[in-house]
User: Fold this.
Amino acid sequence: MRNYTKHYINGEWVESTGTDTIDVINPATEEIIGQISSGTEEDVHRAVMAAKEAFPYFSQTSREERIALLNNIVKEYENRKDDFVQIITEELGSPISKSESVQYEMGLQHFKQAAKELETFTFLEDRGGHVVQKDAIGVAGLITPWNFPTNQAATKLASAFAAGATVVLKPASKTPYAAIIMAEIFEKAGMPKGVFNLVNGSGSRVGNAISSHSDVAFVSFTGSGAVGEKIMKNAAEGIKKVSLELGGKSPLVILPDANIYKAAQTAVEGVANNAGQVCTAATRTIIPHSIKNEFVEAVKEIVANYPVGDPVKESTQMGPQVSKDQWETVQSYIQKGIDEGATLIAGGLGKPEGLETGYFSQLTVFSNVKNDMVIAQEEIFGPVMSIITYDDLDEAIEIANDTVYGLAGYVYGEEPKLLAHVAKSLKAGRITINNEDGDFQAPFGGFKQSGIGREWGDYGIEEFLEPKSILGLPNV
Ligand code: NAP
Ligand code: MG
Assistant:
């Protein structure tokens, strides 16, 4: 059992002021794997006070000191690789190969990228008539979801440390252990006390206390739109800055000249990844009407052979949903798709054969989906694809942009002019052409209801800074 009922405050592991605990469950086995503390408002207050006290010192550290700190973190993070891979497989149900290649790796890359950005980052810019100096914002409250435990926390932490801001982190209570390993890493890396504080517990209590604390200057949140709204409301009182990374319903536009089988593989990967629990998942597959039959056949074949199952097995590519609640949500959307009259071509209701224990969904694909159906408009956060057809490219772009979200977009095909045209026309914060590799410098964030602000790389660091213009600065 992993019983970690302490918080990390002011450079020490401390008892919670409360006695309640939260069980952490392995979603592949449905077994309790440990407990964390259910933190209190008092715990949050102590953490915020520690961060506030550390701020004057940490915000004045030099660029070189913070680069050295980030480089130490990278080294210690690499030393804990096996622990991360094991824990994320257990707490999230992520397939073990992906726990390494995606989960472990993404967290690491954010710290590396932040160190690299700092080498050249402009904190003082002479703009002719004035200079702009960028000051660290103050105490930042970081609230993260369960779907990428290292990535979501690391992008915020790396940016905050690079900027010289101090933090209080509340990770998702469903997947708290990756953040506990990070606290151990920071301690080893020589983090000055009070710069990083970790309070575990529920969103309604710990998260709420962070976003309403008067000494928190900035709340950086990743999660659902519903909680994002609550955070904005809390932040309105006292005028806190917020950054919100919320949901998505991202389109994959397939061009008429695409290799149909490879396009179908891309589409299936896009919804199977992390069991569909990806905010940038390409869940609306928008294809030319003319290739529909061939495309549907290719998708059926790929789904039938997709390795869904025990996350501990090396060959597994898709594990369970993170929780029973999430599994039930996915089921309700599959039922909704059937009720709305979409055509079920793969998967469907219930668990995959032989996977009765664990919160496993079937990899599910609907065709004949209309973009105004609920399954095409609402974020399911599960492995459910909606295939929608178009007659010409203008219609494809119109369908792609007909959503309240705008987090990501994808385009797949051959003709460079068409690829560029579609990519430039999509209204979303991150567009990927033909499975181009990720880039940890590229800004990440959403248009419309997908959020406010940007993370990753230099854009991420900017969020933790306040620009100050100085007029008439003497040249001293
Ligand atoms: P969620 O319910 O919004 O939870 C996210 C975090 O907020 C958790 O740590 C949660 O704590 C906390 N929280 C809950 N209620 C709160 C409150 N009243 N005040 C402050 N914090 C509160 O989201 P989720 O179910 O974990 O994740 C799924 C959603 O996140 C999806 O909509 C997905 O699209 C979105 N998401 C977006 C991105 C992105 O980068 N844009 C990335 C990942 C996920 P507890 O759960 O511990 O109670
Ligand atoms: Mg939740």
The first strand starts at residue 2 and ends at 4.
